[in-house]
Specification:
By secondary structure, this protein is of the alpha/beta class. The chain contains 13 helices and six strands. It has a six-stranded parallel sheet with strand order 3-2-1-4-5-6, with helices on both faces. Strand 5, helix 12 and strand 6 form a beta-alpha-beta unit. The longest helix has 17 residues. The termini are close together.
Length: 247
Amino acid sequence: MIKAVIFDLDGTLVKTERLKAISYGLAANELDPERDHQDQALLAFAEVVGRPRHEVAQHILQKLNVEEAAARRCKEFMVSEAWQALVQIRLQLYEKMIKDADLLRKNIWPYSIELLKWARSERYLTGLATASSCQAAHHVLKALDLEASFNYIATNDDVEHNKPDPEIYQLVASGLGVLPAECIVIEDSPAGVTAAREAGMAYLAVSTEFTRNRLHADQYIDEKWIVDEPSRLKQQFMQLIAEIAAT
């Protein structure tokens, strides 16, 4: 019996993944103003979305060929590696973007938020498992008026290993007081789905422009539970509930 629904944040409830991708492009432009890196940054980010921050940054450094430029900024930020300098520049730009509450509200995923509100109305426990920092996550939730919508929230600050490691989903299940088999996870990235699956949870993978191809290419993700049309999210959720109940 399903007792809890656990949501990812970035890319699932709000389109912050796109904003992050844009911020990487802007950071690369700052490092190398001779070229516009924005389109290439969007493509590179799509290849690693949902992975730990250091993996994303290292991948983008290589794809955009700005490693040397970033390395020259290490001393400025008191870091030792080029990817860390890129992250510092990117975070400054991203933080400015998400301070704009109107921008965040314009970038919600409405069907995911509707499912969240419906789940609460149906007395399901609700959890949030996000790779974002605690500060960033609560800022986004406050802007979207969702701070009181979860019974338990876990962020990158609460775990040693984030997605695709199952630790964060195990933590949320424990915090909610339910078994992994009693949870359904709503995710958008292959890394997030892997984390949910490895935690022993059912899942729905809501695809985006950044994750659609990789979700369908992942042999371990059941095509039946990939939601390519967001308006069908609740319908597929009910189908998943019914199949679980029948087993």
